[in-house]
Amino acid sequence: MLNNPTSEISYYFAKLQALGVNLPRLNLLGLARGPILCFGLIVFLLLLTGCKTGHHSSSLSVKEKSFNSLPGWEKDDKVHEAFHAFRKSCPVLLKGDPHRTMGFGTKAKDWHSACKRALSHNPKTHHEAREFFEEHFRPHHVKYGPKNQGVFTGYYESELRGSRHKTDEYSHPIYAPPKDLICHASSKSCGKKSFFGGIAPHHDRQAIHEGALKNKNLEIVWVDDPVESFFMHIQGSARVVLDNGKVVRLMYAGSNGHPFVPIGRVLLERKQVRPESMSMQSIRKWMKDNPHEATKLMNKNPRYIFFKEFHGEGPIGCMGAPLTPGRSLAVDRAFIPMGAPLWVNTHYPENYFKIQRLFIAQDTGSAIKGPIRGDIFWGYGKEATHNAGKTKVNGEYYIFLPS
């Protein structure tokens, strides 16, 4: 959609304004006609927007603790589930440069001993699994400045009904990435080649809804529910039960490069949902009750996710390891290394029962930002969907670093 200099200048202006840079009001069409001034401005814009703003990691601190001081450590009687989740991360952790930095003063090679042991070990009880972590790691309490609390949410693997062929019942496409989509592996940023050689956002959600990707042979499956399809984009993976009984598993394959806009915030601003009742369930209910307005609301979020099929255990987190329900955690990897065990101390939102258990950092997400921030993977099905929709609580975590 950014297919001319004027619209691309507008795009980079918007990026600068998002960074807090005050810019004069300029006639962009006039700028486009002045090649020297235009080029100088674009170089300036690209230099600024091409640099990622870093986190103030100097404010992040950890303090070593004993295992006995972890709240609820002895009560996690299914810690072997976390062991198996950690073991799934080990083939990834053992790959690549052993001297690459993992964070918190560790390098990849420092994690190798625990991984090699995990791959050759099969604990039969939670006691044996607990002993493994106590032998190979030391827990450290994570703080950011004076704070040790952050927000914990939940996500799930969507389950939809679909078909390989478009019908009156199955009429909403799930798309594979367009041929011209470019994604940088290091930054996970996606888009298409811009007029100036960089990456600019691809078609936004509204344009795609209106047919921008039709007749390009990108449809993987067709599903019956546009609302569930929308939530699938937020979750980033799905199981699609086909009309012939077979199950297709889909995983994230890229985005259109537009920013994520939470539609719950839109509903709050319009006062169409009360703040105290805001949840994924209340958003879903509003869209089901207002089908003619639902598409307009979904289009307020311009971000669009593309998918690919995969076979085998899953879904797959961003680090490349299969996720484990109730044991995999999405984090901000600018702060927390992928594959790290994290002891989480929080609670269920509805009954305040404690959640004190070991998770493994195996995923991330566009909305998961901050040094103390976690998104719990609950699995799939009705219970997982319910837990994910209701989970938004404060909590803390302790990162396990190699001993």
Largest sheet: 6 strands, mixed, barrel
Topology, number of strands: 18
Distance between the termini: 51 Å
User: Going across the major beta sheet, what is the strand order?
Assistant: 5-17-14-16-15-18
Structural category: alpha+beta
Q: Tell me, briefly, the overall form.
A: globular
Q: Count of DSSP helices?
A: 12
Query: How much of the sequence is in beta strands?
Result: 25-35%
Q: Which spans of ≥5 residues are poorly predicted at pLDDT below 50?
A: 1-56
Write a concise keyword list for the protein shown above.
single chain, alpha+beta, 403 residues, disordered N terminus, six-stranded mixed beta barrel, three-stranded antiparallel sheet, 18 strands
Q: Which secondary structure elements does this structure contain, and how are they paired or packed?
A:
Layout: H1 5-18, H2 28-33, H3 35-49, E1 60-64, H4 79-93, E2 101-103, E3 106-107, H5 112-119, H6 126-136, E4 137-144, E5 150-163, E6 172-175, E7 182-183, E8 190-193, E9 199-200, H7 205-209, E10 219-223, H8 226-235, E11 237-242, E12 247-255, H9 263-269, H10 280-289, H11 291-299, E13 305-310, E14 328-330, E15 341-347, E16 354-363, E17 373-380, H12 382-390, E18 392-402
Parallel strand pairs: 5-11, 5-17, 14-16
Antiparallel strand pairs: 1-4, 2-3, 4-18, 5-10, 5-18, 6-10, 7-8, 8-9, 11-12, 12-13, 14-17, 15-16, 15-18
